[in-house]
Amino acid sequence: MGFIVGLTGGIGSGKTAASDHFATLGIDVVDADIIARQVVEPGTEALSRIVEHFGKDILQADGTLDRAALRQRVFSQPDEKRWLEQLLHPLIGDATLHALAATKSPYALFVSPLLFESGMQAICNRTLLIDAPEQAQLERTMVRDNNPAGQVKAIMASQTSRETRQAKADDVICNDGSLQDLHHKVEAMHARYLTLAGAS
Fold first, then answer.
1. Which residues contact 143 (CB under 8 A, 6 or more apart)?
2. Would you say 36 and 44 are in contact if contact means Cβ atoms under 8 Å apart?
3. Which has more pLDDT, 124 or 73?
4. Domain boundary pick from 80, 104, 128
5. CA distance 1 to 118
6. Percent of the chain with pLDDT strictly greater than 90
7. Residues 113 and 14 placed together within one structural domain of the fold
8. Are 15 and 9 in contact, with CB atoms under 8 Å apart?
């Protein structure tokens, strides 16, 4: 396993815009959200266990998992949430390590909104927080997901606080300007990580 940079940030902070730019600089990106979807695709052992446990109405018409329905089912039921996490977390962890081992760039970027909550920062050589003022997070998310302010605020409240993330991260990019500004900051970090990865 080579040099791994873990990238995280709250909802609407600009994680995707940042990781997309790292990718254009030639860095292999492993995204926890994509892996989380892959482990429950039709035909997987995990999906059949979920259907067995929650019933067929947890599936959409095309046979894929209805993630929104599942979220609602487990959100208010700690035991169900625990059952689901015990099933999925080891699978996601294995698939993540497998994907990171297959990367070929000078360092790999592991993108996870729950990097610190999941303990996955332990596999990273450096952690990078994409940070944004809460008002910017709120506005970006409302525009992107077409969600009302109340819903976005509830999601933000359920995530780790900005201060906690800032304290835990090795590096922080404050994404409070233009996209071009973010790209410049990503390029500066990229140069730094190339040096660190070369030295390891």
1. none
2. no
3. 124
4. 104
5. 20
6. 70
7. yes
8. yes
| Partners of 108 in the β-ladder | 4, 28
Q: Is pLDDT at 193 greater than 90 in this prediction?
A: yes
Residues 17 and 65 in one domain: no
pLDDT single digits (tens) 133-164: 888 888 888 888 888 888 888 877 877 888 99
Q: What is the CA radius of gyration of the chain?
A: 18
Q: Give the span between the Cα atoms of 115 and 93, in whole angstroms.
A: 12
One-letter identity of residue 159: Q
The verdict on 52 and 132 lying in the same domain is no
- The pLDDT value given to residue 23: 98
Tokens of 183: 């790209």
Structurally, the chain folds into a number of domains equal to 2
Distance CA 169, CA 106 (A): 21
pLDDT at 56 over 80: yes
Does the pLDDT of residue 1 top 80, yes or no? no
Residue 60, pLDDT score? 94
Residue 23, domain extent: 1-27+107-195
Do 20 and 78 fall into the same domain?
Answer: no
